[in-house]
Amino acid sequence: MLSAQEALQRLKEGNRRFASGSRDSDSLTSPMRRKELAADQNPFAIILGCSDSRVPAEIVFDQGLGDLFVIRVAGNIVAPSQIGSVEFAAEWYGTKLVVVLGHSRCGAVLATLDELTQQAKHPSKNLRSIVDRVRPSVEPLMTTELRQNHDELMRQAVRANVRASANHLRHGSDVLEQLMLHDQLLIVGAEYSLDTGVVDFFDGEPQES
Q1: What is the pLDDT of residues 167-177, one digit of tens each?
Q2: Is-above-0.85 flag for pTM?
Q3: 45 forms bridges with which residues in the sheet?
Q4: Which of 6, 75, 95, 151 lies 20 to 30 Å from 188, alpha-carbon distance?
Q5: What value does the CA radius of gyration of the chain take, rounded to a whole number of Å?
């Protein structure tokens, strides 16, 4: 199993290939690869990402079958089922890297901002459950200055939501906390740009000494 740093480097290299238009994962999605994985899997990274159709983790990181354990939910929010899924992959497969992957112009974040600025329609109770999980991370950004600059407000809100989800994973599970305590798990936050295809790892990445 790859170390967290090795896994992170592999994701960065894959994203560089994707963003530059030089994807090279055909062999990783071949019938032969599928047969190899029929009995077992060893994903090298766990991705908690948004359900947005424009951000499929395997594609933006140029990875194939069996490489990533992907959990997708609108707004890349963290609820008990998402925590349990991360715990399962980290414990069962020994995967040492978790990436919370948000993206620019996230619809769930936009819906939350619209509600905070009283521009939203009343959502269903199910949609509200998503908005309510995003709201605590973005509500502090509703200053007069940012309210007048929607693009900057949106940019900061997306990143604040990623940080909140990453921190929830770091501090909302005894299982994950113990793994981190023993250097067996690294949780980082990242943002995918819909415009450039580049993933920016901006939260939780260890600094080089």
Answers
A1: 999 999 999 99
A2: yes
A3: 68
A4: 151
A5: 17
